[in-house]
Structure formats: C-alpha cells, structure tokens
Amino acid sequence: xxxxxxxxxxxxxxxxxxxxxxxxxxxxxxxxxxxxxxxxxxxxxxxxxxxxxxxxxxxxxxxxxxxxxxxxxxxxxxxxxxxxxxxxxxxxxxxxxxxxxxxxxxxxxxxxxxxxxxxxxxxxxxxxxxxxxxxxxxxxxxxxxxxxxxxxxxxxxxxxxxxxxxxxxxxxxxxxxxxxxxxxxxxxxxxxxxxxxxxxxxxxxxxxxxxxxxxxxxxxxxxxxxxxxxxxxxxxxxxxxxxxxxxxxxxxxxxxxxxxxxxxxxxxxxxxxxxxxxxxxxxxxxxxxxxxxxxxxxxxxxxxxxxxxxxxxxxxxxxxxxxxxxxxxxxxxxxxxxxxxxxxxxxxxxxxxxxxxxxxxxxxxxxxxxxxxxxxxxxxxxxxxxxxxxxxxxxxxxxxxxxxxxx
Length: 407
Hints:
Distance between the termini: 129 Å
Helix content: under 10%
Strand content: 35-45%
C-alpha cells in the first residue's frame, strides 16, 4: 500500500494522533487551529502541514464553509442573534438570518443588501378626520378602521331665562341647528322669578308664619353680675323644664351621651357642672358631632373634673383643646368616669327628659318609659375619636345640669 501522501512518512505524530477520535462532521476550526499550534513552518514538518491542510479542506467540503478560503484567513464562522425577548440564536456560515415583521409591520428585501420595514396596510384611507364617528384600535395601538363623521354645526349656544307664567323657561339658543328649552316648574309654596337673562330667584310662598324661634345665644354683660353662662340642659330642643334636681353618680367607665342644640357659633371657654358630693374619682367631659341622630366624632378637646378638692356647688373646667360649636347644630354631650369614685353632680330626673333612642323590641309596657341617653360599652374610661355604633345602647340616667361659657 502506498503512503498516505506522496513521499510522506506513515507516522503522524500530531495531526492524526490529535484528531483520530473525531469525524469530519464533529471536527471544528478550533480543533484544527489547536492542532496546528505550535507547528512551525519548517521542512521537517512538511508532512504534518500537508495532513493539516488535507483535514481542513475535507472539513470545509463537508460543512460548505468556504468563507475562510475566499476572504482573509480566520474569517467568522458564526454569530449570535438576540432580541428583547426569546432565547438567543446562533447563525453559522451558510445559514440565512430572516427579519420577520411583527404585528402591523411588513419587511421587504431589495438590492443592494437592504431590508426595509414598513407599517402594514390596514385599509384606513389617508385623510384628515375632524369629527370621526368611530375609531377602531387594536390592543397594540394600531388603528385598523376610521369612520368619518359629520362636523357639528351647532358650535355656539346662548343661554337665556324667560318667564312663563309661574314657571321659568331656560332657553338654549343654538347658533345653527335645533334650539332647546328646559322648563323650571314652581312647586307648592314656591315662586320662580326671572330677574335677569342669567338669573332666576326661588322663594317660598305661602305656608309661612310669624314665628322665628331662637335659642338664647347672646351674652348680657351689662351691669353686675354679667350673664354669660348658658344652661344647656334647660334650653329648648333636648332640654327639660323640670326644676327639681337629682344627683348623678356615673359609677361606670362606659361613655354616656345626651343630645343638645348649640345656642351660638363660638368656641367653648369653660364647662360648668354643679357638684353635689365632692368625694373621690375623676369625671371627663367631651362634645361629639351628630350623624343621623347618634353621636359620631369627638369635637376638639376634653374638660376634666378631679374630685376631692372641688367642694360643692358650681365649678368649671376649661377644655384642653378648642371645642368649636355652630349655632342651631345638634351635638352630643358626653361624660365618662375616667377614675372611679363616689362623687356626684346635679342633674334632672330621667323621667322629665326626652327619649333620644328607640325602645327594645321586647318592650311590653309603655308605662314609665325613659331612654334619655345612650351608653357606649367597651370605652374603658376614655373617649374615642369616634363612637362605635354597635356598642351604643339606649338607657335612662338623669340629664346632667351643664353650662357653657364661650370665648
């Protein structure tokens, strides 16, 4: 058998030894490169150089990798393609890289070596649509259809009021197109009067009387003494006309509420109570707003009465933060025993006070019924920022004799 190459030795100390486990499909340019490094270009290496060239030519023939033969040596054999999403792809010599148009995009190849990306045609006619009647947009923001509308002609309007008997017509006069009219109809005991083109006066008519009940809300400072203490529990609304008094010892750390109407718009300066028994304990006072006939949110600060050194009779305490009232508005006075004790303050009998809560569904007799206050259980001797409606229960406790002076 003749030698593998003309005049070559049968021994291949490097090329065939290094590559003997590979096939032409497996062998890569890196394998060939590693086998030839180092392999000096000298006469005694001629056989190995010829074998290396032979392997490389056979490999290129199998894989059709001719770039290295046609351009500079060591040319590119592959490159990676990456995008915003999806796995990276490797493009090898001889493979094609395709540019695909996404949603609403088309691509086209042209000479020389050009790829052009165009917005795909949607059927929408190029135009300036001033008042389209409908626009269809895909989830990717592509407009796929536009239907032309009619440009409005009623572009300006004039609004005028005109008397129509006891009623008033509001006329919407369009500069073009159709006019419109809205009629304001005077109801029972109401009058409607057109006083100007842009003004209509509504007034009560009939059913009135000469009464204008006002709560006492003005201090009378002339003379000595001055008259500045407003007795809240004796005023109209929720007060009582009962002159007899009773003693109230709260004996509970639940908050108790009684409604009242504010006699004037002002800040409370001092809170007055009448001490019947000056023993032990501490009593707190606060004001709550009303919401639908039940106490709602605490208004301002707290006034505190610490028994043991107050003595009996009228005494006062200033709130630790401003309590602002609005004349004619319903509020709730609230008392709580901050520290338990045996002291008592003056009040009116529960039998002479108005009910401020409904009766129990199990009530069997309307004799001697009184629910003149609300109890809030679970308060633990302190005022909350708001009341807990679920914890409110009507009950009967004498109405505290309570006075305010205003700043």
